[in-house]
């Protein structure tokens, strides 16, 4: 294992959504290669705190790559240069002594900056709220084994369901498109028998909400797929497109207004 | 109607339009290349000029041609609309250039498309517009002895100003009098800068379609474990290799011939 | 106040059905007149908020994360138990009940545990109907795996991400209700106090983490689903944000805190690499099926390994101590979590630990690779090996893994009765936040089951009874108690913000963690606990003098958030130590060195300690008062565990 290293950080600092931000340079000294990227920032923050300066704010929680809180656009990559991991799983041994690391927040009109490196990703929640569910109430459901699901279908649905909602797809996309995120849920439920009754209304509702949030458009560059920490594939977007056109052009059902009447 | 309006105003609807117009233009490329291969026929432009004449005078083709122009315009306008929208989706860019894995062509469709649009404008004004609306082209008369199948060619000066073409048979000799686009091509392609521009444009076609063809299928949602590899195969070999090379060879060969 | 658990009378199997019938109902048209506050959006919180909204109540849901989907339930890996008996291997509700009671070392209530086992089957049905992609067999039916502490296959799973999938299921149900307008969602909002009006919980005080605004919210009932307090140890497998603040502030307003000393320590975590470490990562226990645990026989060898002068593979066979196999010949490496954890710590304490910190033992797959071949090992554990390589940069196919125990789950929590109501009327606690179902030790794959059971299938019934009793009269924040509580919170925050000392809050947290781990961790003694209590008191005094809290209230202020949480952890830490001192027996996750069998196993004292300890807060810096709820066992016979 190599020794400790010293790094230069260029970090985006922004007080709040309204105030313009700027890059500030910090030294990260005596960094162990065993630290995670966020632990490295913890060290920097500790030293800032001791100087009674405001620590760098970033979203993080589980620190094991599943909650989707952490973000950070590191040297041109969402979640840093390594594949299939989140920032909290990125270790400092990926970098070399003396390196300059630029850390930016996700950049998207739909993800306004909350503070420093943290953005407001509630647009994702609203897309899910528009239809990312099976409309059933608690209780009164059939026995779990009443619906057999072919293993391949269940596995594929699972692959789509592993999305952690971190927003790396939006951050990576040159158009800041949220189609990978949106399509993952549409595909998961569209593949499963439980999702069939609302399949065509769901896709319309979710796409409409996605459009409203001000995300860009997919041009199939595949950057999202390449940066997704859970390796959700571009095929999900094709699945969504197919269902959407099918719904809009060949079917009679509308995006049902879930709020309409009880 | 508003249902459709809504559909095509949605993000996916706009993509659908891009995909459909794009694929339509792709099919045209095959036809266009097929016809243009006649340029390689060593007959002093007889086949090519006849073909050009056929294209401009056969009504169904005329209709398709207008669809084609419409497709080009729609494709370009929607590209512009989508690009503006996409730019708005990221008002503040990154300080570090994105390094995410994505093919160069997929990230530069706008640039490639703009080159192509410029190319199409020059190309059309040089050939199509000149052919149709400018009286600068001369005429050729091809006389084919139907017995021996020998063709001779000579310049022809039409007796009336609005002469278009004529086909007649006299004494077992077929006489075809048509506009001589072929000569125009020979002149154009003898200029080096023009050839270079054409070759660059065909490079743009290659990269544009390398991404565009398969992307259109993705947009339509036609992704399938078994068929998608075939789409990629055609997108790469036919649309990004054979067709652009085929087109690019024309100015190159004519230029070499002109030397 | 007497502690009435309100366990229904009658035969075990009929208690819940009978109770459900006896509970008062709220008329459907009256439901919309009730406002319910649900704090936390993990499995328990999200499922409760959704289910109550579906019934027609108006729900306000709160989470401190930026989205309800990020609650730490998402990180659960293994699976969820249910007594479906799909495998035809003899499972039943009673067997799940029995395994859970026994696994909890007979410190849980029979009635609660039986209900949990009973509704476990409904949970699976519910989740499948939501579109949760559980693992399936080729025939299209659900797959099961077996898990520690049971002899049947009853664990349903979704690869290694069961918690994620279940939470996203509950999140989707919650989203539907948000869309319908029945749930109002407050994200980045932290609960800082409970408002008590005439002895009933009637609302909460929150801080908007984006603007710093201190707000009050009123409701007919307040439901806490705010998770466990494992982060009192600083390092745990919990998320960084996981905290006890909501539960602790409720405790300080009168809710009893039960069994705080019951903590579960998981043996196979990736060891700490240094002081910078912010959290620990769990690796599935299944690794112990094929890995052999060892430490060097001598301290000298261990030191050479720590300094990296030699590699693990350089240690000769005769210089290795396969201590679990040596001490427990029949169970070997497969002894229960607590036993494996304790032994690893002992080795490290004796100076025989490995890795740079000396806080680890080896889990060696060399023998398994030789026996099964690397491909088979890869097929079984590939993802775990990859994860290990990712974090440590060491290839476990070549060198043994280093493992160390880590705090993983806390069985203690707010005291609740059978209805999940705390002793403070109107205040309920669900999921890991309450103490109810796991006794002194939780079985694998039971946490998800309990969270969802509470949220989907218990609270929707039991809450109605309370609501029907108090009636639908509108509640709002006009009562002076709201303003008073709000002012209390503002004053407390200002006190925190005035701290401009020389030591960061994280340092205090780390120090607290060291104390807790050392003296109130895997092995506890009268002496150590007494010392810990004094140390924590000192730490607390020092905190309120020398901590640094930067920034101000009216902004995003992570330092303030953390300071409030750490202050609460310090107080909780003291109570945990007090509880551990009081419980002079060993049981489950609570191991008192003074109380062990000749074989070194946890020795319960059923005669004197078959009770739930419920602690009452009596004032700042006052000793808490212990209330005992006797545990009555009518259906199971209390036995001693042995793994020799």
UniProtKB/TrEMBL annotation, chain A:
Pfam families membership: Fer2_3, Fer4_7
Q: Name one GO molecular function term.
A: electron transfer activity
GO BP terms: namely:
aerobic respiration; respiratory electron transport chain
* Annotated InterPro entries: 2Fe-2S_ferredoxin-like_sf, 2Fe2S_fd_BS, 4Fe4S_Fe-S-bd, Beta-grasp_dom_sf, Helical_ferredxn, SDH/FRD_Iron-Sulfur, Succ_DH/fum_Rdtase_N
For the 4Fe-4S ferredoxin-type domain, which residue ranges apply?
154-184
What cofactor does this protein call for?
[3Fe-4S] cluster; [2Fe-2S] cluster
On the tree of life, the source organism's domain of life is Bacteria
- What NCBIfam families has UniProt attached to this entry? PRK07570.1 (NF005746)
Per the similarity annotation, which family is this? Belongs to the succinate dehydrogenase/fumarate reductase iron-sulfur protein family.
Q: What is this protein called?
A: Succinate dehydrogenase/fumarate reductase iron-sulfur subunit
TrEMBL record, chain B:
Gene Ontology CC: one annotated term: membrane
| Highest taxon of source | Bacteria
UniProt cross-references to NCBIfam families, sorted A to Z: sdhC_b558_fam (TIGR02046)
Entry annotated with the keyword 4Fe-4S: no
Presence of the UniProt keyword RNA-binding in the record: no
Q: Which InterPro entries match?
A: Cytochrome_b-558, SQR/QFR_C/D
TM segment ranges: 16-40, 63-84, 109-131, 192-210, 230-256
The name under which this protein is listed is Succinate dehydrogenase cytochrome b subunit
Which key words tag this protein in UniProt?
Answer: Membrane, Transmembrane, Transmembrane helix
TrEMBL record, chain C:
Q: Where in the cell is it found?
A: Cell membrane
What Gene3D superfamilies does the record tag this protein with? Answer: FAD/NAD(P)-binding domain (3.50.50.60), Fumarate reductase/succinate dehydrogenase flavoprotein-like, C-terminal domain (1.20.58.100), Succinate dehydrogenase/fumarate reductase flavoprotein, catalytic domain (3.90.700.10)
Q: Name one GO molecular function term.
A: flavin adenine dinucleotide binding
Please give the cofactor(s) recorded in the UniProt entry for this protein.
FAD
Q: Where is the Fumarate reductase/succinate dehydrogenase flavoprotein-like C-terminal domain?
A: 509-643
What domain of life is recorded for the organism? Bacteria
Keywords, alphabetical: Cell membrane, Electron transport, FAD, Flavoprotein, Membrane, Oxidoreductase, Transport
Q: Which family does it belong to?
A: Belongs to the FAD-dependent oxidoreductase 2 family. FRD/SDH subfamily.
The name under which this protein is listed is: succinate dehydrogenase
Species the sequence originates in = Mucilaginibacter terrigena
């Amino acid at each position: 294992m190599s020794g400790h290293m010293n790094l230069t950080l260029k970090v985006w600092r922004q007080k709040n959504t309204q105030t313009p931000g700027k890059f500030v340079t910090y030294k990260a000294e005596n960094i162990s290669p065993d630290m995670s990227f966020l632990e490295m920032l913890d060290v920097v923050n500790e030293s800032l705190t001791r100087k009674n300066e405001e620590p760098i704010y970033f979203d993080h929680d589980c620190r094991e790559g599943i909650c989707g809180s952490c973000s950070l656009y590191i040297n041109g990559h969402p979640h840093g240069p390594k594949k299939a991991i989140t920032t909290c799983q990125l270790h400092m041994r990926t970098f070399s002594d003396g390196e300059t690391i630029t850390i930016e927040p996700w950049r998207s009109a739909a993800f306004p900056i909350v503070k420093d490196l943290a953005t407001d990703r509630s647009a994702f929640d609203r897309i899910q709220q528009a239809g990312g569910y099976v409309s059933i109430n608690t209780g009164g459901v059939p026995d779990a084994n009443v619906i057999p699901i072919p293993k391949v279908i269940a596995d594929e649905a699972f692959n789509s369901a592993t999305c952690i909602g971190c927003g790396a797809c939006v951050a990576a996309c040159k158009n800041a498109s949220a189609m990978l995120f949106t399509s993952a849920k549409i595909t998961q439920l569209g593949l499963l028998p439980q999702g069939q009754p609302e399949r065509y209304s769901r896709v319309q509702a979710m796409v409409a909400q996605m459009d409203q949030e001000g995300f860009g458009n997919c041009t199939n560059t595949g950057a999202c797929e390449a940066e997704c920490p859970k390796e959700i594939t571009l095929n999900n977007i094709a699945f969504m497109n197919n269902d959407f056109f099918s719904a809009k052009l060949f079917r009679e059902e509308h995006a049902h207004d879930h709020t309409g009447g009880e | 109607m508003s249902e459709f309006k809504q559909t095509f105003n949605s993000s996916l609807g706009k993509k659908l339009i891009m995909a459909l117009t794009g694929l339509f233009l792709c099919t045209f490329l095959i036809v266009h290349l097929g016809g243009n291969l006649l340029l390689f026929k060593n007959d002093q432009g007889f086949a090519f000029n006849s073909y050009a004449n056929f294209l401009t005078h056969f009504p169904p083709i005329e209709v398709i041609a207008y669809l084609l122009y419409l497709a080009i315009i729609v494709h370009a306008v929607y590209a512009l609309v989508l690009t503006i929208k996409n730019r708005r989706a990221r008002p503040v860019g990154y300080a570090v250039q994105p390094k995410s894995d994505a093919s160069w062509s997929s990230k530069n469709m706008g640039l490639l498309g703009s080159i192509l649009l410029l190319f199409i404008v020059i190309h059309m004004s040089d050939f199509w517009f000149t052919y149709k609306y400018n009286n600068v082209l001369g005429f050729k008369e091809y006389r084919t002895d139907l017995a021996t199948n020998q063709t001779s060619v000579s310049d022809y000066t039409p007796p009336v100003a609005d002469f278009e073409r004529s086909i007649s048979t006299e004494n077992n000799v077929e006489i075809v009098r048509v506009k001589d686009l072929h000569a125009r091509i020979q002149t154009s392609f003898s200029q080096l800068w023009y050839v270079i521009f054409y070759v660059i444009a065909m490079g743009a076609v290659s990269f544009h379609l390398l991404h565009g063809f398969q992307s259109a299928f993705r947009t339509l949602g036609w992704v399938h474990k078994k068929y998608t590899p075939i789409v990629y195969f055609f997108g790469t070999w036919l649309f990004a290799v054979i067709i652009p090379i085929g087109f690019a060879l024309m100015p190159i060969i004519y230029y070499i011939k002109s030397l | 106040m007497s502690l009435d658990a309100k366990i229904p009378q009658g035969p075990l199997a009929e208690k819940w059905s009978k109770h459900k019938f006896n509970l008062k109902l709220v008329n459907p048209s009256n439901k919309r007149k009730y406002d319910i506050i649900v704090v936390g959006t993990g499995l328990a919180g999200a499922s409760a908020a959704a289910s109550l909204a579906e019934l027609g109540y108006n729900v306000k849901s709160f989470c401190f994360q930026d989205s309800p989907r990020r609650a730490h339930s998402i990180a659960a890996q293994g699976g969820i138990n249910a007594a479906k008996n799909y495998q035809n291997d003899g499972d039943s509700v009673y067997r799940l009940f029995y395994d859970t009671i026994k696994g909890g070392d007979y410190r849980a209530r029979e009635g609660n545990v039986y209900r949990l086992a009973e509704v476990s089957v409904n949970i699976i049905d519910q989740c499948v109907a939501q579109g949760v992609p559980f693992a399936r067999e080729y025939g299209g039916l659900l797959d099961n795996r077996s898990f520690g502490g049971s002899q049947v296959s009853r664990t349903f799973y979704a690869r290694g991400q069961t918690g994620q999938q279940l939470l996203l299921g509950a999140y989707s149900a919650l989203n539907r209700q948000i869309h319908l307008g029945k749930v109002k969602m407050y994200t980045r909002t932290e609960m800082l106090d409970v408002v008590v009006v005439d002895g009933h919980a009637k609302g909460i005080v929150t801080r908007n983490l984006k603007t710093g605004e201190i707000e009050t919210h009123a409701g007919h009932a307040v439901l806490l689903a705010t998770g466990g307090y494992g982060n009192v140890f600083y390092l745990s497998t919990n998320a960084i944000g996981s905290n006890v603040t909501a539960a602790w502030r409720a405790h300080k307003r009168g809710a009893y805190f039960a069994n705080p000393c019951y903590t579960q320590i998981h043996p196979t975590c990736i060891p700490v690499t240094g002081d910078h470490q912010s959290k620990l990562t769990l690796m599935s226990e299944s690794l112990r099926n094929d890995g052999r645990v060892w430490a060097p026989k001598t301290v000298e060898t261990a030191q050479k390994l720590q300094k990296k002068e030699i590699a693990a593979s350089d240690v000769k066979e005769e210089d290795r101590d396969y201590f679990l196999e040596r001490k427990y010949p029949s169970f070997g490496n497969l002894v229960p979590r607590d036993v494996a954890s304790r032994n690893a710590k002992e080795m490290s304490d004796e100076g025989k630990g490995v890795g740079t910190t000396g806080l680890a033992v080896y889990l060696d797959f060399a023998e398994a690779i030789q026996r099964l071949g690397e491909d088979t090992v890869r097929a079984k554990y590939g993802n775990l090996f990859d994860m290990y390589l990712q974090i440590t940069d060491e290839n476990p196919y070549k060198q043994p893994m280093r493992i160390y125990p880590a705090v993983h789950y806390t069985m203690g929590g707010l005291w609740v009765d059978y209805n999940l109501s705390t002793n403070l009327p109107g205040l309920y606690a669900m999921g890991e936040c309450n103490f109810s179902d796991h006794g002194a030790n939780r079985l694998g794959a039971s946490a998800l089951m309990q969270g969802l059971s509470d949220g989907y299938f218990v609270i929707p019934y039991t809450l109605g009874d309370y609501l029907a009793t108090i009636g639908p009269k509108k509640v709002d924040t006009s009562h002076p108690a709201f303003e008073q509580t709000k002012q209390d919170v503002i004053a407390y925050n200002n006190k925190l913000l005035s701290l401009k000392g020389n030591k960061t809050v994280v340092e205090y947290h780390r120090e607290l963690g060291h104390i807790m781990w050392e003296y109130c961790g895997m092995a506890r003694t009268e002496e150590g606990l007494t010392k810990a209590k004094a140390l924590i008191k000192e730490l607390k005094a020092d905190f309120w003098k020398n901590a640094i809290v930067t920034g101000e209230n009216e902004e995003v202020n992570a330092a303030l958030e953390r300071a409030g949480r750490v202050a609460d952890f310090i107080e909780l830490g003291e109570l945990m130590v007090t509880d551990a001192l009081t419980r002079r027996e060993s049981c489950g996750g609570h191991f008192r060195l003074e109380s062990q069998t000749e074989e070194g196993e946890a020795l319960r004292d059923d005669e004197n300690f078959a009770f739930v300890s419920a602690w009452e807060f009596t004032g700042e810096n006052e000793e808490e008062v212990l209330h005992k709820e006797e545990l009555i066992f009518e259906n199971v016979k209390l036995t001693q565990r042995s793994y020799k």
